[in-house]
Amino acid sequence: MAAHKRVTIADIARFAGVSPGAVSFALNDRPGVSQETRERILAIAAEHHWQPSRAARALGGSRLGVIGLVVERPARTLGTEAFFTDLISGIQSGLAAANGSLQLRMVTDTAGEIATYRAWAGSHQVDGVIVIDPRDDDPRFAVLDEVGLPAVVLGSAPSAPGEHAAVWLDDRAAAHTLFDYIAALGHRRIAYVSGPESFQHMRLRAEVLTGLAGRGVAGIVEATDFSLQAAAETTRRLLSSAERPTAVVYDNDVMAVSGLRVTQEMGVAVPGELSIASFDDSVMTELMRPSITSLTRDTVGVGELAAGLLITQLDSPEPVPSIPGPAPRLTARESTAPPHA
Q1: Domains of the chain, CATH where assigned
Q2: Could you report the per-residue pLDDT of 66-84, keeping only the tens digit for each?
Q3: Percentage of the chain lying above the pLDDT 90 cut
Q4: Could you tell me if 339 and 295 are in contact, meaning their C-beta atoms sit under 8 angstroms apart?
């Protein structure tokens, strides 16, 4: 079957018996055609389901209605981490009112992310981007400034004046909420199985844990690549050590479930011999047995705020201020308890 041919302005002009310029005036609500001609052109365009070409809009310098999100993760993990499905849902929800859409790209490293930004800017594929996982001395923002791509950051603190606006979550306070609770249960040897050390929020969480040394808490930080395999291998190593931790906190729900499976494999009772907690919550953590203590976040709400803030930035010639995201709350479940005597 032949592919359906896209109706163009030239086609509409032929159907209406007018020039392509007259069609352009009518479709863009500009003067130059009579009201009767305008209505006839609009009716023909609607009849043939005409939509403006994004490429043509880009050449004309107009808004595309598309924002970009680049995720530096193995592609296989996207469907397993509830954080990303919730974040994407929130962004799409935030764009719906403006009839906008999201362009998603998966990459394996920062170089791939930077290359994507350059390609998007060079071909005008997106109006702006939402940037996640900021690092210290992050090279991505200089590139975004260089190519002139507006951005909003999901970060751990408000951006400095003049920098890209952020929807920020106080990761230091969030880490205190979870680690302080584990310490208050009586645990004095706590492991944190994190993601890459280069991410700011990982560093902040690790600093909070090691800062509990003044309360007699020995903090162990184990960086991973977020994968199920790395979480399982790290958990086995921790539970096989001579000085086994009495509690392990994982950076996300998938890693926590992977760690829980290892405890079952090794015959370590949770929470009798080991407490487990997660910085991310999802239906999965609630349905596990034992259910997993987590920080519950409104990630959908964060995505909505980020999309709305980026739309505001696109309409403003000056950098807009950062806004706080919804604060997480502790959801204590069956996987945590005071350490066994």
Answers
A1: 9-51 (1.10.260.40), 66-169+299-324 (3.40.50.2300), 171-296 (3.40.50.2300)
A2: 999 999 877 666 667 788 8
A3: 64
A4: no
